[in-house]
Amino acid sequence: MSMWTLVIALLSAIIVWFSLVRFLLARPWAAVGDADYTNDIGAIDYPAKKVALFFFLAAISSLFALFVTAYVMRMDPHHGADWHTVEKPGMLWINTVLLIFSSAAVQWARSIAYNPPAKNLKAAVALTGMFTLAFLLGQLVAWQQIHNSTHFHLDNPAMAFFYLLTGVHGLHLLGGLYVWSRTTVRVWQDAKISTIKLSIELCTVYWHYLLLVWLVLFGLLIST
Length: 224
Fold this sequence. Notes:
- Helix 4 packs antiparallel against helix 7.
- The protein is 79% helix and 0% strand.
- The longest helix is centred in the first third of the chain and has 35 residues, at 41-75.
- It is mostly helical.
- The protein has helices spanning 3-25, 35-39, 41-75, 91-114, 121-148, 157-188, 193-222.
- The chain has one domain (3-222): Cytochrome c oxidase, subunit III, four-helix bundle (Four Helix Bundle (Hemerythrin (Met), subunit A)), CATH 1.20.120.80.
- The chain contains seven helices and no strands.
């Protein structure tokens, strides 16, 4: 896999992600009709957001399933003898622990939001962001370690897939951080818990999902 193939794959992933986000933000399920129906939208707003998130996660799952399938197929010697196993940087283990801590922190935030008083909510949301950013910075360090290794060759498809899988996963975390940052601002502005607990719950589901995806990718990378 050449560098151009990797770039095209990453751009395709970004386009798919951006298109899905725009589609979901447009909320096509919320029909525009008469005034009576419009006034009732608030009653179904929360379930609709949950349904939208699960549809989004299903789309992401399909994307990663395609990447993992391509990874396994390309690794097969029958598809080319240019696959050379890459020694994975030890930083990936530290990053995995950081993402687990991030997932635990967001779960803590959800528990606080649904079990007031919420005196520790600000600390919980702050820890979530800190651990997530630490994970992403750690991934950049891992990239640099791979780049500086003696096994770095762009014509090695194993190398290209490493950047592809970790890069696409990182992009989805960045998207989650954008939503989480908006929720965090509302928390620090002391917004009512009733107005933000749904956002915290949806972020919790998203973080747990990306942790699961990373554990699958991490297991795949270190075992091949």
